[in-house]
Amino acid sequence: MKFSIKNGLPIISIDFIYQGNYVHLEKVLVDTGCAVSIFDVDAVEATGLRIDPINGVAKRMYGIGGQSELCYEQALNDLQIGSISFSSFTLQLGMTQEPYGFDGILGSDYFIKTKSVIDYLSFTIYNR
């Protein structure tokens, strides 16, 4: 997966597929300082993925400046992020487009689970 640097930040574009439904996301932040991946609820709505207030857990997401947003953390089945398929993956859904300008944020949970290496020499993320 190739990434580019925009305003000093690593940004990727990915295909997000949930239960066979697809959406292409252009502005996803690569953020190893973020513990849990989060996607904008409006950006992934076309896949049929919605906040599940019954099975999800309300959480607060905090940014560097101390700003916080309410989001929902939920376990998902049959998810594909980029070229990686997950039978089960927990992520957060919330607002990332309006306050931050991103369709989503890929956090450490994704990179640990996929054993990813982020190579700034070739601007590539690859899995071991």
3D shape:
globular
Q: Which CATH architecture is right?
A: Beta Barrel
Characterize the biggest β-sheet: 6 strands, mixed, barrel
Rounded to the nearest angstrom, the radius of gyration is 14 Å
- Provide the CATH topology: Cathepsin D, subunit A, domain 1
Number of strands: 10
Multimerization state: single chain
- Termini Cα gap: 13 Å
* Average pLDDT rating: 93
The DSSP helix count reads 2
Percentage of residues in helical conformation = under 10%
Strand order of the largest sheet: 2-3-8-4-7-6
Describe the 3D structure.
It is a single chain. About 10% of the residues lie in helices and about 55% in strands. It is mainly beta and about 130 residues long. It has one domain (about 5-125): Cathepsin D, subunit A, domain 1 (Beta Barrel), CATH 2.40.70.10. The longest helix is centred in the last third of the chain and has 6 residues, at about 110-115. The protein is globular and about 45 Å long.
Brief overview, please?
With 128 residues, the protein is mainly beta. The protein has 2 helices and 10 strands, in the order E-E-E-E-E-E-E-H-E-H-E-E.
Q: Which descriptors would you attach to this protein?
A:
128 residues; 10 strands; 2 helices; Cathepsin D, subunit A, domain 1; single chain; 53% strand; mainly beta; six-stranded mixed β-barrel
